[in-house]
# Entry
Amino acid sequence: MAQQVVSGDALVRAYPDYLKTSDEKQIVWNDGTRMPLSDGKPDKSFDEKLKNASLLDQLSLPYPIGKPDHVPGADEDPGRFRNQAFFDKMYGDCDKHETQKRLVKVPWFGGFVEVTTINGVADKLRAVAAEIDRLPAALKRYAYPSAGAFACRTVKDTGKRSMHAYGAALDINTKYSDYWLWGKGAYHNRIPWEIVEIFERHGFIWGGKWGHFDTMHFEYRPEYFDARQ
Ligand SMILES: [Zn+2]
# Structure
């Protein structure tokens, strides 16, 4: 199932403001910083990848773009392997108050959400809001109020920084949401595809496509929409 990605090209194409080039061993940032793709540990368990993902681990599970045609398997979590050093460098360390300097408030259906301007995330979210606003009322009510965007916090089961800590994630209406840690484990979703489809078109992946499902959650991960991957 897992497609073997052998270079960081998808990352370079997804984050052109920060990354210059890559080869089979590393990515090179515009400031000259080099980061290895592999951590030299090819036999890590799923849990180890969640807690300590290399860049190769981060790219190892393809995200299924488009209308879901199956319930995700238990360990089908595309996007949950995140290399913290990579995202810390790009969006800043919120514990050092770096991320906060690049946050703006984006209007979200009568309220505001706080997200980063890095990689154009705030503008993309404005576009998402405008498109959701054009959906029929019966569909768009699932999107608001937002349950939050920026939050300097970690993911419950991994202890690693959430994309919310980078200002690059948004939770929609909790009332219609399902989360693997709330229920008895069986996959459940009430969020309409029309909303998910809009987020995906702007580079956001959806937590409803994870075995460890979190159906209110969207995060900006353009590397998964790379046509050449
Ligand atoms: Zn979330």
User: Anything to note?
Assistant: Residues 9-225 form one domain. Helices lie at 9-14, 46-51, 55-58, 84-91, 121-133, 137-140, 193-201.
